[in-house]
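During the reporting period the student researcher (J.K.) took over the structure-prediction task from the postdoctoral fellow and processed the backlog of single-chain submissions. One of the processed entries is reproduced below for the supervisory committee.
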Amino acid sequence: MKRISLYTALVFVILLLGIFALGYMLESTKFEHKITIQAPIEKAFKNIASHELKPLLYQNIIADGTIIEDYEEGNTSKVCYGNEDLKCFTEEILKIDPLNQLSLKTVGSRFTTTTHIYFTPSYLRTKLHIKEEIRGNSAFDRAMLYFIKNSVLKHRKNYYKLIKSAVESTPDYDINPEELK
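J.K. obtained the following C-alpha cells:
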C-alpha cells in the first residue's frame, strides 16, 4: 500500500515538474483573426478605438460578476469586476495610426495580451486583420495556456464577432477625421 501511494506521489511530482518545464520553454501563443465589418472604416475605427463600446463588450465577456470599476486615464484604462473575488485588468493603447492600426496591451492577473488591429477599407465595409500574442504571467500560466489554447481561440473568435455586431449596430453619425488622431 505504501508503494502505491509513493508511486502515485512520484508520478504527480513528475507531472507537476513537466508542466513547469513546459511553461518555462513556451514564450507565448499567437492567434490571427480576419473579420469584415459592414461599416465604413471611419465608423469602425472610431467605435473600436474609443471607450464608448467597451462597457457593452466587457459586460458580454465577463460572465462571473458585474463591472465594479471602469476608468480611463490617458492611454490606459482599468476595469475591475467580480462578485466575491475581485479581478482587474488594465488596457493600454500602444499605438494609434488613425484609420490604419490600433495596438493594445491588456494585462490581467494571469495573462498579458498584445493585440494589433489593422484596418483596410473595402467600399462600405472594413476588413480587420487582428494579430494577438497571449503570454502567461507565470510559468504555470504559460503551461496552462498551451493546454487551453483552443478554448482561448474560440473565446477570442466570439469576442471579435461581438465587436463586429456592436460596431454594425451603432448608429451612423458624422465623424470628424481630426477626432480620430
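The committee noted the following: The helical segments are 2-25, 41-49, 54-61, 139-169.
J.K. will present the remaining backlog at the next meeting.
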